[in-house]
Structure formats: structure tokens, C-alpha cells
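Support reply, case 0932

Customer input (verbatim):
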Amino acid sequence: MPLSQSELRHLLETPESHALEEALVSLKGRVAVISSFGAESAILLDEIARIDPSVPVFFLDTRRHFPETLAYRDELTEALGLLDVRTISPASKELESRDPQDQLAAFDPDACCALRKVEPLELVLPEFDVWLTGRKRSQAATRAALPVVDPQPDGTVKLNPLAGWGPEKIESEMRHRHLPRHPLVSKGYTSIGCAPCTRPVGDGEDGRAGRWAGLAKTECGIHRPA
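Our regenerated output:
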């Protein structure tokens, strides 16, 4: 169910640095995480695990991920002691019907994202009132105005606890906490999605420039631009 006005107001008035803990404690059982287990995912997942490792963590297995991402999901789950990582995937019959040759991304990437990410997630979204994400303002121009508490039209909330974190802070914390790295980071991947739609990022490029390179597309559809 949506957050009540008083619950939403309380979350909006909570200092940004305490929003994650407040949500996990005061709304326990109503909060879940969306994680790509990508280049910077370890920070948010570590923050969550320190407070409540039983929080459900949803990973969208699009069937197009790099093998390194799937291995990293398992490595990070064990390293952080996450107790409820749930992998969700597109329905086999939908893949067979709408992308039988596994080529949809090449000519209609929006439709591919809808099939492989948006629709599977929509099946579980109604189970929770607050969704935690690792989005940050520093990741792309389209996220520059991202709030920590992001109320949704349906009355639920997307909470972005790391919205204000920049690359320097991310790197510093990764080192300080000795967190495992995604294997592709050392190869120049700063934002990691499906293999056919992701490339390494060059010097001076936007952190998400390697996603859907050459296209106007900047988001998969599970988040609206802020």
C-alpha cells in the first residue's frame, strides 16, 4: 500500500544521511532493493547489510548479462551476508514470442528493456512500499536533480540513499571497506548493464556513456529521469 502522508512527510524531513536507516527500521517488511550488481552496487548493498541483511534484494536477470555480473552477484551476496537475494527473469514464453532470435535489442532496445526488465519487475513492485536504488546524481546529466526521497505517482517511494555521493567518495569507501570489485571495472566499464548494450567508457566521458552508446536512450525504463 502507499505510504501515509505522515510516513512520507517523516521520510522527507529525515536528514539525507539517515534516510536509509530510518526507512529500514521504521518501515521494516515494506522495503526492498533493486540492484544490478554492477560497478558501484557494493556500496549500497554494504550499507543495507550493516543495518538489516534480511532486506529483500531483487536482481533482474535479463538473460543478457555478462557472465562476470552473475558471478559477482554470487560473490557479493556471500561477502556481505545478504540473506534474501531474489533473481527475477522474463517469462520464457514471452521471450519465445517477442524475441525468438535474441535480436530485439539490436533494432528496438526500448522493447527489449520492457520485456526483460520493466515487465518482470512490475510483477513484484506492488509487494513493497519503498524501493531502494543505487542511483546517483553524478552518474549522468539525466540524474543531476535526483532526490534522495523520490515519491512515485502511485504513492510509493523510491529511496536513493547515495544520490549525493560522487566518484571520489565511492572509490574511497570501496577501498576503506575492502569491498569486492566487479571484474569488468578494471577493463573500463563504469556502468554495467546487458552485454549487447554496454561498452567501456573512455576518458572524459559521462559515467553512463557506455550504456546504449550511439542512441538517445539513457535509461532502461525501470526508473524515470529526475
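We compared this against your earlier run and they match. Two observations from our side: The longest strand covers residues 31-34. Strands lie at 31-34, 57-60, 85-88, 130-132, 149-151, 157-159. Please reopen the case if you see a mismatch on your end.
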